Amino acid sequence: MYAKFGNLGLARRVFNDMTDRSLVSWTALIGGYVRRGDMGNAWFLFKLMPGRDSAAFNLLIDGYVKVGDMRCARSLFDEMPERNVISWTSMIYGYCNNGDVLSARVLFDAMPEKNLVSWNAMIGGYCQNKQPHEALKLFRELQSSTVFEPNEVTVVSILPAIATLGALELGEWVHRFAQKKKLDREVNAVNMEPRNDGNYVMVRNLYAMEEWWRAVKEIKGLMRRSGAKKEVGSSAIEVDSRVSEFISGGIAHPEWDVIESVIDQLWIHMRDSVVAQTP
């Protein structure tokens, strides 16, 4: 319980005082370190853990995937005595997030048993890495499958590829799909998490694909009324061992006055250069 709520210091003391540690207690403490991103302590406990099960392996793999350490994640994956669909899918997500789509696809093809989450992860990975043709190809394989049927997550995953390639027939499929499902789950997601901008954006995109512009306008209105905001763009730069972050349209930087003055000088310099080169 202490590990779950982030009090790892107390959780570790309670754990150390335990005379009979179960797999659940080991896994709970390891999970606490993983959630914090402290893979050093998570790994240390994992190596001490007797009778490590697939849940413990999956925790560590997921932790390394989230911090971008695919080498350690793959080492654990290869070490697993019995891999399950969670293990395979975590690795696929990790490789896609790190731009290694080829390794992700090799694992996807090698999976002894796939589920819809695995398909969605691979399709989304192709879109994420600017490979819309491969995304659509895999999506069509899923469509022809007699085992799985695309769901709302699949639609959201494939939307970027449809938009990039202008795949008319798939746009029409999305239209039929949304009519069939009536977008009930997306609307429920908005109702359950009214301040989660991601849910609104997902529903808005599906409505836009169907050209339901009135519905798109209504979703935007709901976002404003609920206070949900789409996250603005940001960038960061390190100068003299100091990291500065800039938010799109923001002026909150502590040295903004100096920055604004330099920008003005650069603008004047560029303007004068253009004027000087104009015949």
From TrEMBL:
UniProt keyword annotation of Phosphoprotein present: no
A GO MF label: RNA binding
Keyword Repeat: yes
Single GO biological process annotation from the record: RNA modification
Residue intervals passing through the bilayer: none
PROSITE patterns membership: PPR (PS51375)
Name this protein carries in UniProt: Pentatricopeptide repeat-containing protein
Swiss-Prot/TrEMBL keywords: Repeat
PPR repeat spans: 22-52, 53-87, 115-149
Pfam families, alphabetized: E_motif, PPR, PPR_2
Source taxonomy: Eukaryota, Viridiplantae, Streptophyta, Embryophyta, Tracheophyta
